[in-house]
């Protein structure tokens, strides 16, 4: 496995692999998000108690799930960056963090908009809402630490340590609704039992979940490709990649 | 794996498990403080090993199910009173103001306010709590015999007590 993975420690190999995956992720993301969210918002039946207000679930749940998923992924690359000190892993931290932060912000905002008419309040300091807010601050902290040092590698190391320490918050967010009394309801679909919703509502939600997964992956691929180009700008392969064959010819003359 | 990496892996995993263990102990120690609300049973029987009961004048939140048929409104004002329960004991809630859309008999709610008698809370805020069940109105009618009423239609206002 190591022999198979090792080429991707180099920027060029990673850049080409990401370039191959990016169009697939992008197309599937557009299809998944448009079909899943469109079906959910316009065609799924209303809820017996909440009416149409429940439709925020088709954005809220995918955003919340991948805010936690992105953080877990970031912690894994942070571990690789700290132990194996592979530079592409360090850049991945910076590629993932802003995407996850935006997902966290979307989940907090949609939750507040839904909470006002349903619960009667925008915000309540219950365990689920508070731990999700801490996740947003952790993301902001990781981004800030990454850029806080003159030396990029020192910054990446500091951000990696915060990612690893902060990942402890992810299971707390997930289990907060089971461990304590909270205003937030317990999980509808991310549990091992049968989902607490009929297929007419669950199907668009699963499609939206798939679409958001592809969207998150596409954004991270895109950011990581840019980061690789930026970091390796002085390498000959980047000049060849960006300027095409013309540059190679001019140099040859 | 070369020894230098092994050492770094050890340090890193040690850090993560150390933080997880200490945070786990902190959260375990304050488990009762992290709860958003107390249940009517906890208010009635007392909390924890010492059976600490709330005293009159104490501010707290109580969460439970609204007892069917317990909602009484004053037709002239916004005053409303109802009882909440979880597994047996009931606590009476007095409230003046607009209740959230999801407030119904049989629904979970969280009320924040001041205890004015051992089992009576004068609430300053009533929040509706939603469960994780979602279903279309037709299915709810079949399964639970619940007639769906759009909260924005005139029908909802003609119903007495806001029962579903």
TrEMBL record, chain A:
Transmembrane segments: 21-43, 63-84, 91-114, 129-149, 161-181, 201-222
Residue stretches making up the Cytochrome c assembly protein domain: 27-184
A Pfam family per the record: Cytochrom_C_asm
Location(s), subcellular: Cell inner membrane; Membrane
InterPro entries listed in its UniProt record: Cyt_c_assembly, Cyt_c_biogenesis_CcmC, Cyt_c_biogenesis_CcsA/CcmC
GO terms, molecular function: heme binding; heme transmembrane transporter activity
Membrane topology value: Multi-pass membrane protein
Any one of the GO BP annotations: cytochrome complex assembly
Keywords associated with the record: Cell inner membrane, Cell membrane, Cytochrome c-type biogenesis, Membrane, Transmembrane, Transmembrane helix, Transport
One GO term describing the cellular component: plasma membrane
Known function: Required for the export of heme to the periplasm for the biogenesis of c-type cytochromes.
Homology family: Belongs to the CcmC/CycZ/HelC family.
Designated name of the protein: Heme exporter protein C
Protein source organism: Pseudidiomarina taiwanensis
Gene field: ccmC
From TrEMBL, chain B:
Keyword Transmembrane helix in record: yes
Membrane topology, record value: Single-pass type II membrane protein
Keywords: Cell inner membrane, Cell membrane, Cytochrome c-type biogenesis, Heme, Iron, Membrane, Metal-binding, Signal-anchor, Transmembrane, Transmembrane helix
Organism from which the protein derives: Pseudidiomarina taiwanensis
Residue intervals on the Extracellular side: 30-164
Main location: membrane
GO BP, one annotated term: protein-heme linkage
GO cellular component, one term: plasma membrane
Family indicated by similarity: Belongs to the CcmE/CycJ family.
InterPro entries attached to this UniProt entry: CcmE, CcmE-like_sf, NA-bd_OB-fold
UniProt cross-references to Pfam families, sorted A to Z: CcmE
Cytoplasmic side of membrane: 1-8
Keyword hit for DNA repair: no
Gene Ontology molecular functions: heme binding; metal ion binding
Compartment(s) of residence: Cell inner membrane; Cell membrane
Protein name as catalogued: Cytochrome c-type biogenesis protein CcmE
Function: Heme chaperone required for the biogenesis of c-type cytochromes. Transiently binds heme delivered by CcmC and transfers the heme to apo-cytochromes in a process facilitated by CcmF and CcmH.
Binding site for heme: 130, 134
């Amino acid at each position: 496995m190591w022999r198979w993975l090792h080429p991707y420690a180099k920027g060029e190999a990673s850049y080409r692999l990401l370039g191959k995956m990016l169009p697939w992720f992008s197309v599937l993301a557009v299809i998944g998000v448009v079909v899943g969210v469109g079906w959910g918002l316009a065609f799924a039946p209303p809820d017996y108690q909440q009416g149409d207000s429940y439709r925020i679930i088709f954005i809220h749940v995918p955003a919340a799930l991948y805010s936690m998923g992105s953080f877990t992924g970031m912690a894994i690359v942070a571990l690789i960056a700290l132990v194996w000190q592979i530079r592409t892993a360090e850049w991945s931290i910076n590629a993932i963090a802003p995407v996850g932060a935006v997902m966290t912000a979307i989940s907090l905002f949609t939750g507040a908009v839904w909470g006002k008419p349903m619960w009667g309040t925008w915000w309540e300091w219950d365990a689920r809402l508070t731990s999700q807010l801490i996740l947003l601050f952790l993301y902001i902290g990781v981004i800030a630490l990454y850029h806080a040092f003159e030396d990029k590698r020192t910054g990446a190391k500091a951000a990696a340590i915060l990612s690893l320490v902060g990942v402890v918050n992810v299971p707390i967010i997930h289990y907060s609704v089971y461990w304590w009394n909270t205003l937030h309801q317990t999980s509808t679909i991310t549990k091992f039992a049968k989902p607490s919703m009929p297929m007419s509502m669950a199907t668009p939600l699963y499609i939206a979940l798939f679409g958001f997964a592809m969207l998150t992956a596409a954004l991270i691929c895109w950011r990581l490709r840019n980061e690789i180009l930026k970091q390796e700008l002085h390498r000959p392969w980047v000049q060849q990649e960006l300027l095409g064959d013309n540059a190679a010819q001019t140099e040859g003359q | 794996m070369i020894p230098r990496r092994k050492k770094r892996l050890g340090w890193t995993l040690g850090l993560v498990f150390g933080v997880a263990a200490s945070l786990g102990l902190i959260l375990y120690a304050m488990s009762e403080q992290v709860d958003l609300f107390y249940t009517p049973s906890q208010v009635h029987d007392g909390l924890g090993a010492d059976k600490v009961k709330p005293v009159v004048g104490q501010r707290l939140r109580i969460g439970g199910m609204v007892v069917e048929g317990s909602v009484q409104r004053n037709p002239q004002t916004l005053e409303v009173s109802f009882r909440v329960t979880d597994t047996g004991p009931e606590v009476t809630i007095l409230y003046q103001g607009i209740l959230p859309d999801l407030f119904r008999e049989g629904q979970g709610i969280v009320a924040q306010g001041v205890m004015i008698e051992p089992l009576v809370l004068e609430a300053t805020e009533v929040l509706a709590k939603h469960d994780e069940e979602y279903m279309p109105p037709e299915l709810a009618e079949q399964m639970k015999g619940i007639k769906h009423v759009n909260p924005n239609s005139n029908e909802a206002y003609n119903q007495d007590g806001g029962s579903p």
